[in-house]
Write a structure and sequence with these properties.
Helix content: 25-40%
Order of helices and strands: HEHEHEHEHEHEHE
Number of strands: 7
Strand order of the largest sheet: 3-4-5
Largest sheet: 3 strands, parallel
Oligomer: single chain
Length: 166
């Protein structure tokens, strides 16, 4: 959802979000996604190619699984870019032939310290409004049950803020 807000703030006007959770797709619509696609469909890539007349300029991979990386590569247009934004626990394969044929690039981004000043500026100036993504605020001592377990089990949760002091 934060990627959605970020690309919107950067000026993207046609934003497609794919997710397996209907609740998260609804949240994506609320936050300004142009189109949402259920990740449970078998024809995700075909639908994206049809909606975009041949592929997206940039595909962000935020789910850290093989299928989403494969779909991201297949969904970019000629000269497009795939950006991996999450930490992969296991290796993934990338179809280099498909990348070469498309002249596409794969890169990655993590939120290292040099990124934080820009993010803080975007939020503090209101160019990125994160209020709609925050679904819960909890105390540090509740982080396991009300934080981690809630994010795993309750697909209505997006971002949970943790208070370090009472």
């Amino acid at each position: 959802m934060l990627t959605l807000l970020s690309v919107k703030a950067a000026g993207a006007t046609n934003i497609i979000v794919v997710n397996k959770s209907e609740e998260r797709l609804e949240k994506a619509k609320e936050l300004g996604a142009t189109m949402v696609i259920s990740g449970l469909r078998n024809d995700i890539v075909q639908q994206i190619l049809e909606l975009t007349n041949g592929g997206v300029s940039v595909a962000y991979e935020c789910a850290v699984v093989q299928l989403t990386m494969t779909n991201a590569v297949a969904s970019v247009k000629q000269g497009g870019q795939v950006i991996a934004k999450a930490v992969f626990g296991n290796p993934v394969a990338i179809d280099m032939g498909q990348l070469l044929y498309k002249g596409a690039n794969v890169t990655s981004r993590l939120a290292y310290r040099h990124v934080f000043p820009e993010v803080i500026d975007l939020i503090s100036t209101g160019r990125v409004d994160v209020k709609g993504v925050i679904t819960k605020k909890i105390n540090l001592e509740d982080i396991v049950e009300s934080g981690f377990e809630a994010l795993i089990n309750d697909k209505k949760q997006a971002k949970i803020l943790v208070r370090t002091t009472k």
